[in-house]
Amino acid sequence: MTKLLIQKLEQIENAFYLSSVQVRELAKKLQTEMTGLPGQGSLQMLPTFMQLPAGSETGTFLAVDFGGTNVRLQLVELLGRGQYAIKKQHSFRLKDPSGRYDFTARETTGEALFDFLAGQIASFMEGTFATSLGLTFSFPCRQLAANKAVLLHWTKEFQTSAVVGREIMGLLAGALADRGLAHLQPAALINDTTGTLLTAAYSNPHADIGSICGTGHNTCYFKTKEPAMIINMEAGNFKQFALTAYDRLLDSNSRRPGTQLLEKAVAGRYLGEICRLILLDMVEQGLLFRGSIPALVRQQQTIDTSELALLAADNSPSLLHIDRWLAARQNIHPTTLTDRQVLKKIALTVISRSARLVGATYIGILQQIDPGLQRRHVIGLDGSLFEKMPGYLSKVRAVLREVFNDKAQSILPVLTGNGSGIGAAIAAAVCADRQT
């Protein structure tokens, strides 16, 4: 490597590295926002009105996972003692690929959307029985109760009319009644982060934090002070950390500049693009790919999270896997070993910062809910970075050890899959028990 290239890599590493001191500072800033008035900081701290399960809940519940254009239905039997079984499941699209229907379009009304959803539920429930359902609805809402929430605005590609500002469970209940399913009561509405915590807590009474880091990022926790409930932090919107020049460029090119800054620094939707911006900077300075700008670097959104994982995981002596990827996927051939080493270095740098930022937020939450770390804590985790990014979870654990030392043994981050499904069923059970 040339002297200029080494200096550039050191500059990038320094910009992305979070020292233990910076981790503690970030955790303290997050803790301060947690104790402030809602709406005054970048955290939203939304009440969910949802309690944790006891783990003894039993019964059969319908889980509806409505987080995008693909909706999933699951008939979940809760068996108690933290055990459950998925008896039946079905997925369907709200937007037909052949163009026969599109319930996400502005021309479609909320009544039509929820009638279609109720029709799918009616077909799914033939030959089966349940009296309560839980809905995972992954769109910004103002929660009024555990089973009532008003849609604030659509995200993703949804533009369905006459839904924004309306109470979602009321729309669903009306549609179900019209389909002869008045006995199937919508008992709980949650988001996927709350579902992750509920799923973890069903099998472990020490679970009190739930977090997702995949395409997006969010975290919730259980507040024990009255009124005790799960709080949805909308942690992806946290802003009190240092941005690099690449973060600022990514944000300025995003659809909503100035928002979701933590998410843009840690989540899978953005990490590949951060790497691309770094590579573009280096190519333009003549430090990479002999100064030529391949499509990999020139075009936006060309590196996804799975490819970032490939770069990070290549431990072959000559980084052969990276070479093959560049040749086959990006038509870049031949490459130098230095080029490949730089790609791996950048990927590891961006991934490491993501894990340390996420770990720092957990530290802030733990210091708020248990200042002396006197109790055991389980953090339920879901998302592609936790599940598939090499070394990611171990980096999060390392940050916890840096700050808490031996006390970090009382903190257990655990992978908790399918929180959007199982969690919705558990939420319905918790609310049903509360009403009996």
From TrEMBL:
Domain Hexokinase C-terminal: from-to ranges: 209-430
Keywords: ATP-binding, Glycolysis, Kinase, Nucleotide-binding, Transferase
InterPro entries: ATPase_NBD, Hexokinase, Hexokinase_C, Hexokinase_N
Protein name: Hexokinase
Organism listed in the record: Desulforamulus hydrothermalis Lam5 = DSM 18033
GO biological process: glucose metabolic process; glycolytic process; intracellular glucose homeostasis
Residue ranges of every copy of the Hexokinase N-terminal domain listed in the record: 9-202
Family: Belongs to the hexokinase family.
PROSITE patterns on file: HEXOKINASE_2 (PS51748)
EC assignment: 2.7.1.1
GO cellular component: cytosol
Claim: Cytoplasm is one of the keywords in the record: no
Biological pathway: Carbohydrate degradation; Carbohydrate metabolism
Pfam families: Hexokinase_1 (PF00349), Hexokinase_2 (PF03727)
Molecular functions per Gene Ontology: ATP binding; D-glucose binding; fructokinase activity; glucokinase activity
Upper lineage: Bacteria, Bacillati, Bacillota, Clostridia, Eubacteriales
